[in-house]
Write a structure and sequence with these properties.
The complex is a heterodimer of chains A (312) and B (456). Chain A folds into two domains: 4-94, Four Helix Bundle (Hemerythrin (Met), subunit A) (Up-down Bundle); 106-295, 3-Layer(aba) Sandwich (Rossmann fold), CATH 3.40.50.300. Helices cover 50% and strands 13% of the residues of chain A. Chain A has twelve helices and eight strands. In chain A, a hairpin with a 7-residue loop joins β7 (280-284) and β8 (292-294). In chain A, α2 crosses α5 (76-90), α3 (37-49) runs antiparallel to α4 and α4 packs across α5. Chain A is elongated and about 65 Å long. Chain B folds into three domains: 3-86, SRP54, nucleotide-binding domain (Four Helix Bundle (Hemerythrin (Met), subunit A), Up-down Bundle), CATH 1.20.120.140; 99-291, P-loop containing nucleotide triphosphate hydrolases (Rossmann fold, 3-Layer(aba) Sandwich), CATH 3.40.50; 304-446, Orthogonal Bundle (434 Repressor (Amino-terminal Domain)), CATH 1.10.260. Helices cover 56% and strands 9% of the residues of chain B. In chain B, α6 (141-152) links the parallel β2 and β3. At the A-B interface, α3, α4, α7 and α10 of A face α2, α6 and α9 of B.
């Protein structure tokens, strides 16, 4: 399995020269050249361009400035290492893992705003579990959007994972309830709930999520065992607000960051982690099921700063 | 740190207003704040920097203030520069029949939903719309578009067993012509702007169907990436417009600023909800005002004009003048307001009100108010004085609410009436002054049922 870093790099290769420059602007800076005021400006721009936001950007810049003060001979590559280590430190503890399943079925609810990639992620996750020898079941709880059922059905057929679905317009909580009973009947190991996209500031739709939790609670008080927010990696600082509100009203346990195969660096997710300390379980690096990869803070930090030679 | 752009600018400018005189130092400081605010709102780094430079230059060039306060001047300069950045001029679609519109964008930006919204709007303008499904990749994308078309009675064309998008678009265009469609909308698959193969595909579709409009559909919450997306798409498929979606969220549209400024392509529409009618036209200068928090009164008025029955509005105005206002009027006014869209959306457009959070809670309160009034007899509605204890108990039960809810409503109603009487009398002017001084403030515990009493 290719590493997160490798995937990131492969993704980078497909990007336009403009962007490659942005990061290796860092590049020119991260090469052998000595640091100066203008290269610090470039670093600042590269960090903002990756959506890291004021806080993380300032922290990284501060560390590089500090080092520069002590050592006027500081080279670009040193700055990159410093940046990567600051980022890695900021992201300490952010790697979410499910080492073993402690419930049967282990219930994972995927939530998020419209178009963040929940359905695609649900199918890919199911496939991942299946490949690990587990029995997954997907529940189509998006009963609102036109043809949402057909979409998840096609995905599940394609990846050969089982699905429970109901009618368009059905009660999402009822679908979840039925799916949990079905999962128990079948002896499934993991139940994945694919919920409808909703903007976080729509209180009524957020209450629908709470209802899913309440209704599932009738069968299993601790359900869902995981509530993951699916975040589009190309979204800016609003994803922090998304996470904040979803967390407050639904009680998140983690994140999945999608669409990192483009030129986005998903820096806003660092902001989410800073504030809410929600671990990142997977990152989406491409269209195939195996492109959904466990998150590694180290690989991510190094990929962001283009430090290659130290990657194993 | 991550408040919306408007909030940030709002607080900066408030500080400035208190400072009395605009000096080099405090201008630099506030421009720095504005820059931070722009960055926090996801405006692209370079765009933000250039914007600040422009503002700085504009300020330096200007003579020291005469009659305006320093705060006002900075507001004006920032507003002007923001408007310039967003571009002036028409943001309407080409007025031709038949009209062909190509939609493209990243995955999950909302193209298919927008396709239906655009069809609805064009239908209202006298076109006969047809939707052509050109997304052969995303599972059930064709179904989604077909359902949306069927629900709204639009023509629809799709080929489920075909993968040749260029062929589909060609046949779809021909079919639509034969059906007498005058607006043909091509919904393409989501794609990364760097996916050369798929971008080539959409380029070929464009060559084949020769659309007058090629619209980039983009999530308003896009981060710094917005610049790359707009720039790269625009280089391969010359765009004629940008559509910002999901603006009913709480993002402030920094991406719009970035995309417009990098490509020069006008922003033509704003998606503001899940319903097929939740689409707004976008005027760059107004968007600037909205971002700045100066409200979008013009578009509010327009919206009100579209929905409010002229005669009804006139009748209501008379009622308000004479302060002869009862629950019946209250109800009908509230229903008029509701027709204009969500309260939250409306409030954002009123200057000074955009800091106010109007969420589902207020919408719910309005529903309660409606239920209470609807539980009254016609006599009770026109003669609130007769509402005694037993009538109140009956009404509350009928509405599924508590008597105290009804009491609160009656009290609020009486306050409104009193206020109207005062406005009518000589005290009105004095009160308005007081009102302006203290800013707009809702009455204590004020639920927005009282919005019905506001004149737009």
């Amino acid at each position: 399995m290719a590493s997160l870093f490798q995937r990131f790099k492969d993704g980078l290769k497909r990007t336009t020269p403009t962007f490659y420059k942005a990061f290796s602007k860092a590049g020119s800076l991260f090469g052998g050249r000595k640091i100066d005021a203008s290269s610090l400006d470039e670093l600042e721009e590269a960090l903002y361009s990756a959506d890291f936001g004021v806080e993380t950007t300032e922290e990284i810049l501060e560390a590089v400035r500090e080092a520069y003060k002590k050592d006027k001979e500081l080279r670009g590559l040193d700055a990159a290492r410093i940046g990567a280590s600051v980022l890695e430190r900021v992201l300490e503890g952010s790697e979410g893992r499910i080492d073993q399943l402690t419930h049967k079925p282990e219930i994972i609810a995927l939530v998020g705003v419209n178009g963040s990639g929940k359905t695609t992620t649900a199918a890919k996750l199911a496939k991942n579990f299946q490949d690990q020898g587990k029995q997954p079941l997907v529940a189509a709880c998006d009963t609102f959007r036109a043809a949402a059922n057909e979409q998840i059905r096609t995905w599940c057929d394609r990846l050969n994972v089982p699905l429970i679905a109901s009618q368009h317009g059905a009660d999402a909580a009822a679908v979840a309830f039925d799916a949990l009973q079905a999962a128990r009947g079948r002896g499934s190991d993991v139940l994945l709930l694919d919920t409808a996209g909703r903007l976080h500031n729509k209180e009524n739709l957020m209450r629908e999520l709470q209802k899913i939790r309440r209704v599932l609670g009738k069968l299993d008080e601790s359900a869902p065992h995981h509530a993951w927010l699916v975040v589009d990696g190309s979204i800016g600082s609003n994803s922090i607000q998304q996470a904040r509100v979803f967390h407050e009203s639904f009680g998140l346990t983690g994140l999945i960051v999608t669409k990192l195969d483009g030129t986005s660096r998903g820096g806003a997710v660092t902001g989410i982690y800073r504030e809410l300390k929600l671990p990142i379980f997977y990152v989406g690096l491409g269209e195939k099921a195996e492109d959904l990869q466990p998150f590694s803070a180290k690989d991510y930090a190094r990929a962001v700063f283009g430090i290659e030679e130290e990657i194993r | 740190m991550f408040e919306s752009l408007t909030d940030r600018l709002g607080s900066t400018l408030r500080n400035l207003r208190g400072k009395g005189k605009l000096t080099e130092e405090n201008m630099a400081e506030s421009l720095q704040e504005v820059r931070k605010a722009l960055l926090a709102a996801d405006v692209h780094f370079r765009v933000a920097r250039e914007f600040i430079e422009r503002v700085r230059e504009a300020c330096v060039g200007q003579e020291v203030l005469k009659s305006v306060s320093p705060g006002q001047m900075v507001v004006k300069v920032i507003n002007d520069e923001l408007a310039k950045l967003l571009g002036e001029g028409s943001t309407e679609l080409v007025n031709e029949k038949p009209l062909r519109v190509l939609l493209l964008g990243l995955q999950g930006s909302g193209k298919t939903t927008f396709a239906a919204k655009l069809a609805k709007r064009l239908e209202k303008e006298g076109y006969k719309p047809a939707l052509i499904a050109c997304d052969v990749y995303r599972p059930a994308a064709i179904d989604q578009l077909e359902i949306l078309a069927k629900d709204n009675g639009f023509l629809f064309y799709g080929e489920r067993d075909q993968k040749d998008v260029v062929g589909i678009s060609k046949r779809g265009a021909k079919w639509a012509r034969e059906q007498g469609a005058t607006a043909v909308i091509f919904d393409t698959a989501g794609r990364l702007q760097i996916d050369t193969e798929l971008v080539e595909e959409v380029r070929k579709v464009r060559e084949t169907v020769q659309p007058q409009e090629s619209l980039l559909v983009a999530d308003a919450a896009l981060g710094q990436e917005a610049v790359n997306v707009a720039k790269t798409f625009n280089e391969s498929v010359p765009l004629t417009g940008i559509v910002m979606t999901k603006l009913d969220g709480d993002t402030r549209g920094g991406a719009a600023l970035s995309m417009k400024s990098i490509t020069g392509v006008p922003i033509k529409f704003l998606g503001v909800g899940e319903k097929v009618t939740d689409l707004e036209a976008c005027h760059p200068d107004r968007l600037a005002g909205r971002i700045l928090g100066m409200g979008d009164v013009v578009s509010l008025v327009e919206k009100a004009q579209e929905n409010i029955d002229e005669k009804e509005a006139e009748r209501m105005a008379k009622k308000l003048e004479t302060a002869d206002f009862n629950f019946e009027d209250f109800l009908s006014q509230m229903q008029q307001v509701k027709k204009m869209g969500s309260l939250g959306g409306l409030m954002k457009m009123i200057p000074g009100m955009n800091n106010m959070q109007v969420g589902d809670r207020e919408e719910r309160k309005m529903k309660h108010t409606e239920a209470l009034i609807q539980s009254m007899t016609p006599l009770e509605r026109s003669n609130p004085v007769i509402l005694n204890g037993s009538r109140r108990a009956r009404i509350a039960q009928g509405a599924g609410l508590q008597v105290k809810d009804l009491n609160a409503l009656i009290k609020q109603f009486q306050q409104m009436k009193k206020m109207m009487k005062m406005m009518k009398g000589g005290k009105g002017r004095k009160m308005m002054k007081k009102f302006q001084k203290g800013g707009m403030q809702l009455p204590e515990g004020g639920d927005l049922g009282g919005l019905g009493g506001m004149k737009f």
